[in-house]
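To: structure desk
From: M.T.
Subject: fold request, one chain
Message: Could you run this one when you get a chance? Sequence is below, nothing fancy, just the single chain.
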Amino acid sequence: MRLPFLTAALLLALLPHEVHSQDAPDPDLVALLRIAASEVDSFPDHFDAQVWLTDMSARLARQVKNPGERIEILQRVHREATRAGLPPELVLAVIDVESNFDRFAISGAGARGLMQIMPFWLNEIGRPDDNLMQIETNLRFGCTILKYYLDLEKGNIPRALGRYNGSLGKRKYPNKVLDKLRLKWFRA
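Reply: Done. Structure tokens follow.
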């Protein structure tokens, strides 16, 4: 399944249940996370940003009551998803399933933050002092990891989501994320 691309005016304004590995992390992914930790991107057009942020903010209002926090999350999701080459809406669907937008979420396995990133990544990339509860750091790592898996799976979103979640070959997690994408975070 591939996501269709829409015009920037409609789009601008989107990974893991628990990202973990049984084996040593892939060195290519470690290198990408090192690069991602030092890059910055933002909205290219203020009008497109306003349209997207207004639309997505209304969809997120039930989960994140504070408007300032809600806009901060959405701006950073858009920036990090765009930087990684992912649809921001897909990242929103992943976060919805992973943490229900609780930036302080910690799973039973120890995954942290919005996108439920495993702390071992910090040591793997030589950044042990980074804080996975910080929105930007969590999103940067999560988006980089999700994009890596999407590329590895040649654009196959369900398989990439399965890798992200550690449930490759099973449909439950990818279906939950894709349902959120289709029913809540769809592109208008």
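Reply (cont.): Residues 40 and 89 are 19 Å apart (CA to CA). Let me know if you need anything else for the meeting.
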